[in-house]
């Protein structure tokens, strides 16, 4: 399953290596579709990518769940740290969409409470199974639920990559846990500056 | 008199010897212990550095605290771009070794909070070991932004 998803991805990345922007993280400009979704935001409103493109902001897209104790908050805190290190005028042109793949527990209210810990640019979203399947298939994001324990708690295994899109929703780069902060900061700065043209 | 002197000397040597043994036995040191609290009713993570200053291998088998109803030891792993997490029943730490519970790796998962916590609070967490006594540790409650 993993090989099926990741191997073609890596091969495509390798083939696409000479084109595009020379991001310090991984270029996805030719292998990922543009920003495109229909989900429910933290206000409980159904929204699409158009609602988040009209302000001319670059977008980071990350999938996870709020009951994730370690990797999700670590990733979001890292994004917060790096974006806080940007100049304010750049930071104002960036949004982080955190999509929960655990809608059974992550209501819009729960998402709003959760994202408030990271900063105003963090926006929580989720959807029903059909909506989540559509966006996760589009970006080749895999997720699965473990068996609940006797208290009904369960963990969710999910893709840990962060996808970056420019202000028009075009795919740009992908950030892995192993990418250093300085590479992420450099690529984010370029992505946002490019959008301001 | 000679007997007295010799028994004092004997007693003193016994004392020095036992003090020496106690020192050689060393202890288990925990530093940089923090509990990363998130808003809402979601689990928190605990991180710390443990130094095994004893001359034998020790085995961490779990933890508990009055502030949460359930604490589990977990390991996060990133494999082929997937983040996954599983429970760890025990962790072996060799003599003299440092072992770190750190983001994206080993962590304590605190579930079902039973006390109101704020950033800056101290939470006592009891670390449990096989074949040796519990080690109480004060964890500082921190925000995700502080890490």
UniProtKB/TrEMBL annotation, chain A:
Domain called Thioredoxin: residue spans: 28-197
InterPro entries in UniProt: SCO1/SenC (IPR003782), Thioredoxin-like_sf (IPR036249), Thioredoxin_domain (IPR013766)
Matching PROSITE patterns: PROKAR_LIPOPROTEIN, THIOREDOXIN_2
Keyword list, A-Z: Copper
Spans through the membrane: none
One Pfam family recorded for the sequence: SCO1-SenC
UniProt xrefs under PANTHER family: ELECTRON TRANSPORT PROTIN SCO1/SENC FAMILY MEMBER, LINALOOL DEHYDRATASE_ISOMERASE DOMAIN-CONTAINING PROTEIN
Family: Belongs to the SCO1/2 family.
Protein name per UniProt: SCO family protein
Species name: Marinobacter halodurans
């Amino acid at each position: 399953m993993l090989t099926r998803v990741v191997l073609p991805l890596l091969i495509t990345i390798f083939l696409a290596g000479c084109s595009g922007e020379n991001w310090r993280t991984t270029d996805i400009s030719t292998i990922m579709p543009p920003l495109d979704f229909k989900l429910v935001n933290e206000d409980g409103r159904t929204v699409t990518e158009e609602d988040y493109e009209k302000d001319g902001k670059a977008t980071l897209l990350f999938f996870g769940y709020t009951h994730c104790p370690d990797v999700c908050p670590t990733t979001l805190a890292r994004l917060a740290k790096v974006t806080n290190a940007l100049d304010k005028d750049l930071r104002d042109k960036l949004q982080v969409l955190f999509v929960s793949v655990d809608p059974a527990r992550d209501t819009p209210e729960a998402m709003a409470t959760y994202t408030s810990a990271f900063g105003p640019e963090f926006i929580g979203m989720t959807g029903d199974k059909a909506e989540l399947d559509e966006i996760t298939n589009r970006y080749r994001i895999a997720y699965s639920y473990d068996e609940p324990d006797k208290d009904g708690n369960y963990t969710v295994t999910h893709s840990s990559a962060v996808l970056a899109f420019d202000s028009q929703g075009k795919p740009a780069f992908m950030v892995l846990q192993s990418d250093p902060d300085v590479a992420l900061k450099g690529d984010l700065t370029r992505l946002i500056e490019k959008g301001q043209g | 008199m000679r007997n007295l002197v010799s028994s004092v000397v004997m007693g003193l040597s016994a004392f020095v010897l036992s003090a020496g043994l106690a020192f050689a036995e060393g202890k288990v040191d925990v530093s940089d212990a923090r509990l990363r609290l998130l808003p809402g009713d979601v689990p928190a993570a605990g991180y710390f550095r443990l130094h095994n200053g004893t001359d034998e291998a020790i085995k961490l088998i779990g933890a508990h605290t009055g502030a949460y109803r359930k604490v589990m030891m977990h390991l996060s792993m990133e494999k082929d771009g997937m983040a996954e997490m599983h429970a760890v029943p025990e962790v072996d730490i060799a003599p003299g070794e440092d072992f770190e519970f750190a983001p994206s790796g080993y962590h304590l998962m605190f579930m079902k909070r039973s006390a109101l916590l704020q950033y800056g609070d101290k939470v006592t967490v009891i670390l449990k070991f096989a074949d040796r006594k519990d080690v109480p540790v004060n964890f500082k409650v921190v925000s995700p932004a502080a890490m």
